[in-house]
Design a protein that fits this description.
The structure is a homodimer.
Chain A (H helix, E strand, L loop, with lengths): L4 E5 L2 E4 L19 E5 L15 E7 L9 E2 L10 E2 L12 E12 L2 E4 L9 E7 L9
Antiparallel strand pairs in A: 2-3, 2-9, 3-8, 4-7, 4-9, 5-6, 7-8
């Protein structure tokens, strides 16, 4: 197997009242606050067509996560046996990409307000995707 | 806004009969074939606990995608007006990370057979995540 490396670039940052990863909710629907997604001016054209009320998937780079962990206690609970990170949503994993399903609450130019965002303040944003029709029943 | 760059590393490769991105189904549930996910020996510990029948989310690096595109015709259909890539699932986007929801059909050591994988042969795998309880109604 040939390991390959790729460079990803931030397209914006999360602005959130959350600043302690240990205190942040583990999932967006577990009491995470609303947050702003502040996009880089260079990518604003890519946001054209997003609307208030849309559900979108935001990918982030979990910059405070550990990358050298392959087994974790599920949900950080030491009473549970460690299992492979790929069976979990732990932020700690070889490529710490966060996956967040959020609703757009408002749009102000290159700033988009979203619901239930569990990423901490300053987390780099790396992508936004539409949800699929098949995802519509998801929340 | 300070642009930041991060390095991601492949953890395996997709082995698929699909080899032409233009001919591949646009989404996994649009007739995509089964495929093997062949993981790098270095990350096998992270797979512990995955089981046949599990739904998982696979993240890939869409290595044949263009990164300089911010507006696309939805679903590649030129009769539809271009819109921002972040409103779509186009592979062409600043950080071409593919998001695939698949079911595990079988596991043979570091090789996992999955359903409905629309990524082409050789696509680097960068992450695997469990689906959330809230995602369970999704398919």
């Amino acid at each position: 197997m040939n390991e390959a490396r790729f460079e990803i670039t931030s397209i914006g940052r999360v602005e959130s009242p959350l600043d302690d990863p240990a205190a942040a909710p583990k999932q967006g629907d577990e009491g995470a606050p609303d947050a702003w997604l502040a996009f880089d001016p260079a990518v604003l054209e890519g946001l054209e067509g997003l609307q208030r009320g849309d559900d979108v998937i935001v990918l982030t780079w979990l910059h405070r996560a550990r990358r050298d962990v392959l087994r974790v206690h599920p949900r950080g609970d030491p009473s549970r046996d460690r299992q492979g990170v790929f069976t979990t949503r732990s932020p700690h994993r070889p490529n710490p990409i966060g996956l967040h399903r959020v609703e757009i609450l408002s749009i102000e130019g290159g700033r988009i307000r979203v619901s239930n965002m569990e990423a901490v303040d300053g987390t780099p944003i790396v992508d936004v995707k539409s949800t699929l029709a098949a995802d519509a029943a998801d929340r």
